[in-house]
Prior knowledge:
The protein is of the alpha/beta class. The chain has one domain. The protein is about 35% helix and about 20% strand. The protein is built from nine helices and seven strands. Helix 7 packs across helix 9 and helix 8 runs parallel beside helix 9. It is globular and about 50 Å long. The two termini are about 15 Å apart.
Amino acid sequence: MTWVAGVDGCPGGWVAVFGPRDGRPDPIRARVLPSLAAICDAPEAPAIVAVDIPIGLPDRVGPGGRTAEVLVRALLGPRRASVFPTSARSVVYAPDYTAAIALSRRPETQPFAPSPPANAIFPRIREVDALLRVRPALQARVHEVHPELAFLSLNGGAALPASKRTAEGAALRRALLARAGLPSGLAVPRGAKPDDLLDALAALAVARAIANGRGVPYPDPPERDAHGLPAAIWTLPHSEAPA
């Protein structure tokens, strides 16, 4: 059996949902692991890992971040605020938030200061960036996704009207996952929150599409940073249940 995985950050590390590439609803396994490397090296050896984290850090970005964020934000309507602009490489690698803000004021980096939520995920971005540079063979397996873009695709290209943190929004996302053949009632593993698991399941839907040659990147083709890492957010064709 060939496995794929959908991944999201969570309080306990990274929540990974492993499933068969061929779209069977079983077996599906969810667990929290300490690092993306541990997920790639898990017993399932996922052929594709779709993770909700920026990959590919340009030396300079524009007001909206990378091209990937600009394109995806335009698609998401009321959910567009969930797409943080990714900072330039030097800003992401700044030693602290004060230094990141100072670097962001330079014309050679970017014309915006990273928000506190964006700054909070810089350690995760650095973890993934370092892993893909140290182990370049993983670049063909690990792909960036954004859960709200995945849900938009599962919803026929229409942005969802309610946040995943509301009862209405969570129910709608569970229904979309169920329609795509994914288990909406999967138990939340210890160390993760319910919305983390929903996002990881959405990422799994994209991982299956990528594994079967139907993944859709924004932009297409992906941009590349100075280290050759791809900078694109992947999704699946609109309304297509993964198979």
